[in-house]
Amino acid sequence: MSTLVFSKSNRKDAAMTDVPWKRYLNRVLWYATLLGVSVPFVFPFIWMVSGSLKSQSEITAFPPTIIPETFRWENYVEIFQYQPFAQQYFNSLYIAVVVTISIMFVASLAGYAFAKIKFKGANLVFLLLLSGLMMPEEVTIIPNFFAMSTLNLMNSHVPLILLPVFGSQGIIATFLMRQFFMSIPNEVEEAGIMDGLSRFGVFWRIALPLSGPALAAVAILSFLHSWNLLLEPLVFVSDLDKFTVPLALNNFSDAYGLPLWHLQMAATSLAVIPVLLIYVIAQRHIVQSFAMTGVKG
């Protein structure tokens, strides 16, 4: 009997000592797999930062090198001397902020109306709104060009603000907000109305504070869409000091139209900073919002 108890205790102790090693090994293998999968995604970023510190000749040299032979920090100075990159950077920044705030305001109101206010033809109007997503921006750019030209808004930043707010990006944001507001129980709003709140009061004091994750997702998507916008600035803006960052990146070229890769890499490295900050700050909110948009349909 004592031998049996002793053997069982030995097996138990051996199992307890084996489990931590297995967990450690599984964790190492898991991290190694993730590290290997992330290489194709991280390598372009590393190459961009490395190229921003090289000379033009070293970037085009073969075989290529990851670590620059000579770190040319002056590339980050030359991009501001080549063109008014600081002004162009500010243009993209303030346009993206204005577009983001405007879309959050319009989409939250429209999404709440489609989700909670019952009116005749609501579903038909919503379907017509979603049908706008089937038309690519390349198709609507010519009518928008004539409309902005008629309103004397060419060579200004107004089209770059209005078109995303009332275009496809605004529609996507409205859809996300509608899906989120539909997940809010009607009993919560009925309790607010019984306490004397108006319809707008229910929206402002109850529904909107609960929609933080959805608003964060809308903010991220709207900011990134506006920050990366190229076609509209290319069509509506012609002055160099009114360029946005995507146009400015395309403008780093020599007299023959060949790209100045070392300057483009340096400018692109600076252009990535707001995008990285947005993702680091609010990445968990966008995942939570997308998980909640399908709760109720």
UniProtKB/TrEMBL annotation:
Q: How does it sit in the membrane?
A: Multi-pass membrane protein
* Ranges where the ABC transmembrane type-1 domain occurs: 89-282
Look up the domain of life of the source: Bacteria
Q: Where is it located?
A: Cell membrane
| A GO biological process held by the record | transmembrane transport
Span-the-membrane segments of this chain are 28-47, 93-115, 124-146, 158-181, 202-224, 261-282
What the entry lists under Pfam families is as follows:
BPD_transp_1
For this protein, the record's PROSITE patterns field holds: ABC_TM1 (PS50928)
InterPro entries registered for this protein in UniProt: MetI-like, MetI-like_sf
Q: Gene Ontology cellular component?
A: plasma membrane
UniProtKB keywords: Cell membrane, Membrane, Transmembrane, Transmembrane helix, Transport
Q: Which family does it belong to?
A: Belongs to the binding-protein-dependent transport system permease family.
> What protein is this chain from?
ABC transporter, membrane spanning protein (Sugar)
Give the source lineage, highest ranks first. Answer: Bacteria, Pseudomonadati, Pseudomonadota, Gammaproteobacteria, Oceanospirillales
